[in-house]
Specification:
Length: 200
């Protein structure tokens, strides 16, 4: 008699692999690199993440949680949090570069003031020069419809609006014209109807 205690294949998603994927994601690695860091294929990581996302969404919708999904939900949430943190920090550096507030070097010098005899700490900070390209890059990605490569100038937007308005006015005039023509045709047909109906 065959035993029913046979175990299935062990889960490849181990805590060490989850840690490796999270660490890779925290520095902006894509799925391929994160998978290599964990020693599995890209398809495997994508499958794990898809399962975790689906289960997390189902739980938000009030569906009962399945304990077998817990490792995948946990991985999905950890990776999303790591990627969000990384992206936020990177964005802050871009904005600092645009504003010229990105610190390149900081030195602290301590000396004794000869006049007062007190210890003085002097801090010297060197900043990156402001670079408008960093701000332009950010604007093009956050507001592509206004600042991206396909964005239209204010004059182009106004010209398109004016053209649409004129087209709308023409369309309304055409509708009115066709309505008037239909009414005249109806009246003409109504006048001819009794004559066509009378016996010859």
């Amino acid at each position: 008699m065959r035993s029913n205690n046979r175990r299935g294949r062990p889960c490849l998603l181990t805590p060490d692999r989850a840690d490796a994927i999270e660490r890779a994601s925290a520095v902006g690695a894509n799925t391929v690199l994160a998978a290599e860091a964990a020693g599995v294929s890209r398809a495997t990581v994508a499958r794990w993440m898809a399962r975790g996302r689906a289960a997390a969404d189902a739980r938000k919708d009030g569906e009962p949680a399945s304990p077998s999904d817990d490792p995948y939900v946990n991985l999905y949430r950890r990776v999303e949090r790591a990627r969000t943190t990384m992206a936020t920090r990177a964005l802050a550096r871009v904005l600092q570069a645009g504003a010229g507030s990105l610190v390149l070097e900081e030195r602290v010098r301590t000396y004794t003031d000869p006049a007062t005899g007190l210890d003085v700490e002097e801090r010297q900070v060197r900043y990156l020069r402001p670079d408008w390209r960093a701000a332009a890059w950010w604007l093009a990605r956050i507001f592509p419809e206004h600042y991206g490569p396909t964005a239209k100038s204010w004059d182009q937007v106004l010209d398109e609006f004016t053209a649409q308005e004129l087209h709308g006015e023409r369309s309304r005039a055409e509708v009115d014209e066709f309505a008037g023509l239909a009414e005249r045709l109806r009246l003409a047909l109504a006048q001819d109807a009794p004559a066509a109906a009378s016996p010859t």
